[in-house]
Amino acid sequence: MTLIHQYKSNGYNIVLDVYSGSVHVVDDLCYDVIAVLEEQNQAHTKETLGMPDTKECLMERLKDTYSKEELLEALSDVTELAGEGRLFTRDAFADMADAVKERKTVVKALCLHIAHDCNLACRYCFAEEGEYHGRRALMSFEVGKKALDFLIQNSGNRRNLEVDFFGGEPLMNWQVVKDLTAYGREQEKIYNKHFRFTLTTNGVLLNDEVQEFLNREMDNVVLSLDGRKEVNDRMRPFRNGTGSYDLIVPKFQKLAKSRNQEKYYIRGTFTRDNLDFGEDILHFADLGFKQMSIEPVVGEESDPYAIREEDLPAIMKEYDRLAQIMIDREKDGKGFNFFHFMIDLDGGPCAAKRLSGCGSGTEYLAVTPWGDLYPCHQFVGREEFLMGNVEEGIVKPEIADEFRGCSVYSKEKCRNCFAKFYCSGGCMANSYNFHGTIHDAYEIGCRMQRKRVECAIMIKAALS
Amino acid sequence: MKHVKTLNTQTLNHTVKRGGCGECQTSCQSACKTSCTVGNQTCEQKK
């Protein structure tokens, strides 16, 4: 089995050979030749490409458009690529899928729900204003310590351990964040580990003391803001209904600058109310931010702000428009990073990582304020996914087994998808929310993901 | 090659040899939290 994806974008003819990960920018001639050859025989090899039948078929199909010499030249290029394992590459990873399913995993990352409470009342919050289908609560230092102990004890030989202080709003439990960080720093010396702490905040309680601490201790901070004032304030009001933009933006600007515009993301959510979300990204750039992310909202189909299938054409156009603007700004020396257009074609993740996905339920777990363990932050509050707690550890290993068995090869929808090694099968929580199983995929999310991969590759082509 | 410009030097097969150490960042810890974006993660061994 081979898989080739061809598309035209912004004047570039792009050919992605999925199983080698090779990306080729080709001229019209070669683009058409590859399309005909793939139609002719998906399982072409260097040998079959050299057969007389192949040449004859090619000539017959494209003789009215290209000369014989041109076609033979392009065929020669294609044959060379196939010989190098960069085109018509066979799927060498299907055999790895069983090994991925059977692999021994260790826990290496925790999402600590340090506060199930929030000082904003964002309309789309999957955490229901921080309460996660439950009660308001703050994590105690004792529970947090046990969570870090659990992580160390279950991390095997992994040295790098990640802990995200998440909420609700983690700054509402600031002393515990500080105390747990100090505890982690003590423990990492004893156990020869290295904690990478991160924190996700809405910025309301950000001040100089917090900033100094974050800059000293946090590998990354995620700063929640949706973009333009009117967009942000519509979805991210305080509980009394007033907007949060004016209070938060100066704090985030100061923090980003103090981190030398690195190791942070300004992170927004777009909804069907701002399908021109490219303007919000550009607004971030105009505010001076360099690292940014805007994610499509995930909500129930009945939510008025949820992305619908009919919104997709506008979203695709907007991603294209944003990609073009990013190229222009980069060329003008005013470039910025957009998380979803970042792609590392040479130094990206290994095949094992691409097959196995985000690690939720196995390598990555969420911890509630009272110490319960869930597969990830998005499953918190769904009792059928309660896996254990920080006192007793994992008491339902069958839940971890199910997540471990989930890979791009366990999902029928991923079989012929060119983006499967970039999203690794997509978000399991999204799949569960829409289909009641983690082994499916959320189609609207898939279509946006495919578009983002196409744009990311096109940007590489334009700037190469 | 006259008609092709290849953007990457490595193939996924190369990564099988060096892969699977598990030291890399967990994808949801970076910025997404509501999707799954693995393709932009960095391999710890290439840092």
Molecular structure report:
The complex is a heterodimer of chains A (464) and B (47). Chain A is α/β, with parallel strands linked by helices and 464 residues long. Chain A is 41% helix and 16% strand. Chain B has 47 residues and is low in regular secondary structure. Chain B is 15% helix and 6% strand. The mean pLDDT of chain B is 77. Classes of the chains: A alpha/beta (464), B little secondary structure (47). The interface between A and B is large, with 88 and 42 residues.
The biggest chain-chain interface is:
A-B, 88 and 42 residues
If you compute it from the alpha carbons, what radius of gyration of chain B comes out, rounded to the nearest whole angstrom? 14 Å
Distance between the termini of chain A: 30 Å
DSSP strand content of chain B:
5-15%
Q: Spans of chain A of 5+ residues with little confidence (pLDDT < 50)? A: none
Distance between the termini of chain B: 31 Å
Q: Give the strand order of the largest sheet of chain A, numbering strands 1, 2, ... along the chain.
A: 12-11-10-9-8-7-4-13-14-15-16
Write down how many β-strands of chain B occur, each being a DSSP E stretch of 2 or more residues.
1
**Count of alpha and pi helical runs of chain B:** 1
The Rg value of chain A, from CA coordinates, equals: 24 Å
Q: How many DSSP H or I helices of chain A?
A: 17
